[in-house]
Amino acid sequence: MAKKPRIVIIGAGMAGLTAANKLYTSTGSDHLFELVVVEGGDRIGGRINTSEFCGDRIEMGATWIHGIGGSPVHQIAREIHALESDKPWECMDGFSGEPKTIAEGGFELNASIVDPISTLFKNLMDFAQGKLAEDSAGSGGDACYYNSAAKAALKDCTSNGGFGNQSVGAFLRRGLGAYCDSCKDREELNGYGEWSRKLLEEAVFAMHENTQRTYTSAGDLFNLDYEAESEYRMFPGEEITISKGYLSIIEHLASVLPPGVIQLGRKVTRIEWQLEGHKSIQVPNGYDSRPVKIEFCDGSFMLADHVIVTVSLGVLKSGTGQDSGMFNPPLPPFKTEAISRLGYGVVNKLFLQWSPNGNRPANDKEKFPSLQMVFHPPESELRHEKIPGWMRRTASLSPIYNNSSVLLSWFAGKEALELETLSDEEIINGVSATVSGLLPVSKHKKEDKYNSREFCNGNVESCDDNGVRFGKVLKSKWGSDPLFLGSYSYVAVGSSGADLDTMAEPLPKLGSTDSDHHPLQILFAGEATHRTHYSTTHGAYFSGLREANRLLKHYRCVRI
């Protein structure tokens, strides 16, 4: 009896389980294939990891459905009733309400300062992402400042022959400079201490840049390619979180698979494939003709006809480096060069429990504000010395929903990596010093309990009646987790959308002489293999479908 083709999927995240679900549920394919999903960790979900903290449902990884119009994730969530829950969950009321923008030193900024810079930043990003045409300038008023700034930045960036190797960071800073030049005759601000108008505008702009860093995972926006930015696509409609947790989507995809298909704790150390010719592999009972051998950290191995690799770009970067041998023979240069050029960053989330007076729950008059934090640059002599550097490049500290006792901050780049190394006490002290530096009592009304300068460590028993106590801490550690080595991909300066297409190329390439003996030995899926939806869960979903359909088409059991 002929053996069924064995398909091994490496990784039980969104891409891997979408591929497994498609392969298993397609008509007749459960009898055609032998399907195995191997996962190096002790759970399914990959970079989706729903958890609980202080009674609230939270997401340690993927958080948002980025646009509900046409999103397959939203469609699944709706079909399985995952958008309804009696239990409170992260961002259940959408984005936080009207934020308070506070500048270092305790100065609350009014809309006349914040809104123009926020609009400028949005317009510049819209230009970069292709949402605004160069001829879409507003008619008069402040709109002409914003659009002329974007146009000036475009002209500056293209003056040397186009956008080759230009960064989003450079474009944004040129836009800010052009804006400041166009309205430099405005009168100086009063009542903001040593903050000048220019310093405040630059700091508010930097706050938005820090938010953008967490959106893209680029630790430095000067590493984010400008030209590729316009290829990225989002679905229309609102962005929402999933009431029952993102993990409900993963569990739904996995639910159709028979017991034993998903194998946890099987960390892959090496993938041997056959670039030329066809050799049978020796096994205990003789030889096996399957072309791919997958070796695991416990010394065991598995043979396969096809392997769908869904590990993160970070793991691929580590596994294809000069001193690594994840693949044997090594991946061809066209593949490794794309892996090397593309960007892959770290984004971490920090959750903190707070209470206004010891452990007593907050009442309606003691809500923690949704803070947008405006800091002096790290090198400035005006900076508050007790505010740690890793806090200076986070943009916000906000309750995860209205009245929640859980606060959330996002971190990217080296600050996200530093966060992973800090103890809970160091984090509490750092956040306390930051809030203290932003909200001194002297600048606010006494009845605003959260504005006390007596924000203090949860371990300090001498907090007075006006003190706010930070208690429990929970943080993600995507950068140091060996199964991920980061969070998600971006198109770095020097790479392009074409590299994302290259990431999706199977090996051996169909049509090559090497593919004649046994094609499609190694296939690649995951968010970093989708040209227009990279960095997203729906991009990972689409890539899993793509590779499953590639194999189904190969075996002529689906109409594409």
UniProtKB/TrEMBL annotation:
Span of domain Amine oxidase: 14-552
Subcellular location: Cytoplasm
Coiled coil spans: none
InterPro entries registered for this protein in UniProt: Amino_oxidase, FAD/NAD-bd_sf, Flavin_monoamine_oxidase
GO CC, alphabetical: cytoplasm
Required cofactor names: FAD
SUPFAM superfamilies: FAD-linked reductases, C-terminal domain, FAD/NAD(P)-binding domain
Keywords noted in UniProt: Cytoplasm, FAD, Flavoprotein, Oxidoreductase
GO function terms (MF aspect): polyamine oxidase activity
A family per Pfam: Amino_oxidase
Family of the protein in this entry: Belongs to the flavin monoamine oxidase family.
Protein name as catalogued: Amine oxidase domain-containing protein
Protein source organism: Gossypium schwendimanii
